[in-house]
Amino acid sequence: MSVGAPRGLASSGQKLITEMLHPLSAAEEPPSPGPDVTVSAEEKEKTSRIEFDLPDYSVRRRYQDFDWLRIKLEDSQPTHLIPPLPEKFVMKGVVDRFSEEFVETRMKALDKFLKRVADHPVLSFNPHLNAFLTAKDLNKRQGLALLTKVGESVKHVAGGYKLRARPAEFCAMGEYLDTFSQKLGTIDRIAQRILREQSEYLTELREYGAVYSSWAGSEEQLQRPLEGVAGCVTTSCGALEDLSDNMSQDFLPVLREYVLYIESMKNVLRKRDQVQAEYEGRLEAAVLRKQEDRTPIPVEVEKCQDKVECFNADLKADWERWQRNKRQDFKQLLTGMADKNINYYEKCQAAWESLITLLQEKQTEDKTSETELN
Prior knowledge:
The structure is a single chain. A hairpin with an 8-residue loop joins strand 2 and strand 3. This protein is mostly helical. About 65% of the residues lie in helices and about 5% in strands. The protein contains seven helices and three strands, in the order E-E-E-H-H-H-H-H-H-H.
């Protein structure tokens, strides 16, 4: 047998992948899909799952607790895409991390992280999630011995073997992530610039309105029109403030979440490559030994092949789920952005149209006064 190229990653022929015990899972049986867990933003949980002792839970969790959960999920489920956490310090130096807006934005992001985990057909059955949702005192130093340590073969590649070639479908995933990352980065930079310009414009607009209010106090004949202009400017300020709040609290966090999601997906792809590299290295060594002394292929090689197949299956399933969620999230995001912009311009238009009516009434009154004087 030639060793120029390792054999393909076809099934070993023993069992279908759906029938095999997952070689990278600590569970005795593969988890069944279809979780029924809901988590609200008020840090309360409701569930009908039998592994929970009570139907309702209310616990307090800090950011470091969420970080602990994500690390545990990543260590115990190395073949799956773990949703990203929001960054601990977003826009450091620009936004006060203790401000009400920052806390609320991060709280929403943490709630979304928890919902994504609870909606996952595998991650939602992870014992660490159970502990996170139910334990009154989450002891992170000693850890909760709920899972045996798994995934060591993922972290340590035998002999530093270099992957020959990533399969075409996973190459396509990597290329898509690179392109998507560039697009999101460009949109994020432009959106940040727009937000800064809106903030500067809002500051000047408020000063602009204040001038008209002050002017109205010294011009009796022009008082109503000047107060009308000041009112229009005030309405425009409120509409612009709502638009800017929507961009900073709803639009930008979604962009940032998917930037972090891309990094998480790339990390899973790298782990998949490591597992494949380990398999190829062991297979090549076994083929050489077989050529020399005609020994059979070791069982460890077939186990490595099963790991690759399971990793591929899990990654494909998570990729499809991520794509569905992405389409839904961006559809809602863009629809919401369109609605907010329409609402902003409608408010501004209505305000200035009311000023036209006021000016026309003022003009009619002036003409009536002139007629009476004549």
